[in-house]
Design goal:
Number of domains: 1
Membrane topology: Multi-pass membrane protein
Transmembrane segments: 49-79, 99-120
Pfam families: RDD
Helix content: 55-70%
Keywords: Cell membrane, Membrane, Transmembrane, Transmembrane helix
Radius of gyration: 29 Å
Strand order of the largest sheet: 1-2
Number of helices: 6
GO molecular function: ATP binding
Structural class: mainly alpha
Strand content: under 5%
Length: 205
């Protein structure tokens, strides 16, 4: 088929630009931020990380208050055992029962207390507003994936089970759980979000 003839000098109608060219000064529209099913913007990885670090700082302070007196007590008992021992050193059996076992029991007790603290803070406290202390500071909120669904104790308990109970006993689960948000689509969920059916959103100041 013969090519169509275009009259010389024809440039199209005024203001016409060939396909693929944008008018001068035109910038592409910005990509809107990802939103949750309820329409609120999803929390960024950085905001969630800062909220987690704030909550961790609070938990660390609680652990120090609970654990420091026990450590000092066991330490002074160990010093006393060494001072009372003869030239051969402290008796291994006595050292085991008077120092090592109490220290092990104290660590286990603090672990249980920390799990209880995390439950109170991340379940009972967060159930009122969907916010922990760290999320309040960072203006974040936990909401169910299903719009209009209630944020119940059971939902938050599932988050606690993966994030804290599982994170304490399964190696590297805490890291995998937290970093999962970076590649999760479309809701940018961590593993504990997926298990509980929640997302974390940014709320207005």
């Amino acid at each position: 088929m013969p090519a169509q003839h275009v009259p010389p000098g024809y440039a199209g109608p005024p203001g016409y630009l060939p396909p693929g060219y944008a008018p001068p000064g035109y910038a592409p529209a910005p990509v809107p931020p990802p939103v949750a099913p309820n329409g609120q913007p999803l929390a960024s990885f950085g905001d969630r990380l800062l909220a987690y670090l704030i909550a961790t700082a609070v938990a660390t302070a609680v652990a120090l208050v609970l654990f420091a007196p026990v450590v000092f007590l066991i330490f002074f008992r160990m010093i006393d055992e060494v001072e009372q021992a003869g030239p051969a050193g402290p008796d291994p059996a006595t050292f085991w029962t008077d120092v090592f076992l109490p220290l092990l029991a104290a660590e286990f007790g603090v672990l249980l207390l920390m799990l209880a603290f995390y439950w109170i803070h991340h379940v009972e406290y967060a159930r009122r507003t969907g916010q922990t202390f760290g999320k309040k500071v960072m203006k974040l909120r936990i909401v169910p994936v299903q719009p209009g669904a209630a944020l119940t104790r059971g939902v938050l308990g599932k988050r606690w089970l993966v994030e804290f109970a599982g994170g304490m006993f399964v190696p590297f689960l805490s890291y995998l759980d937290g970093f999962w948000q970076l590649w999760d689509k479309p809701w940018q969920q961590c593993l504990h979000d997926k298990f509980a059916g929640t997302v974390v959103v940014k709320v207005a100041p």
